[in-house]
Specification:
Length: about 160
């Protein structure tokens, strides 16, 4: 013989089911927002460096660029320095956009006009004008950004290719 559910027990069960449903409705969008970046790849957009008309050949020039982060979660862009180097190659001018982050322990390097090299102040690392590590502890060249020119305006993306 079938047991009948008491009204009280039915009300408790209905309240619990309704509570669970409301909790799911509230939690699902939050959980989705938190987990969604794990399942989506963020594209690396082109980032405008600026007009490089005034950059002299043979003199690395620093530009401050708002660089988007590569992290999956929404993090505001960070200011990075990109050194723009122009070199004469035959009859053409080659443009090299270099990171200023030392490949030893990530200190900021700067162009030293007297040395005619990039100098890292932390441990004396040296890089040539093309970003090649030529002295001190840095194990690799400075990172070179992918780049494109639209007229004289330079854009960079990623930080994937080494000098
Ligand atoms: S951090 Fe640049 S040489 Fe060590």
């Amino acid at each position: 013989m079938a047991r009948r559910m008491s009204r009280r027990r039915f009300m408790v069960l209905a309240t619990n089911v309704a509570g669970a449903g409301i909790t799911l409705l509230i939690a699902a969008p939050i959980v989705g927002e938190v987990l969604q970046p794990i399942f989506t790849r963020r594209a690396h957009p082109w980032v405008r460096v600026g007009d490089i008309t005034q950059v002299p050949v043979g003199l690395p020039t620093a530009y401050v660029v708002q660089m988007p982060t590569t992290q999956a979660w929404k993090v505001p862009p960070v200011a990075r320095i990109v050194y723009v180097v122009k070199l004469n190659v035959g009859s053409a001018v080659q443009v090299l956009p270099l990171s200023n982050v030392c490949t030893h322990m990530q200190c900021d390097v700067h162009w030293d006009q007297n040395l005619q090299q990039f100098l890292c102040p932390c441990h004396g690392g040296l890089y040539s004008i093309t970003g090649v590590n030529v002295g001190g502890p840095p194990p690799r060249p400075l990172f070179r950004y992918r780049h494109k020119l639209v007229g004289e305006t330079l854009y960079v993306r990623d930080q994937l290719t080494e000098a």
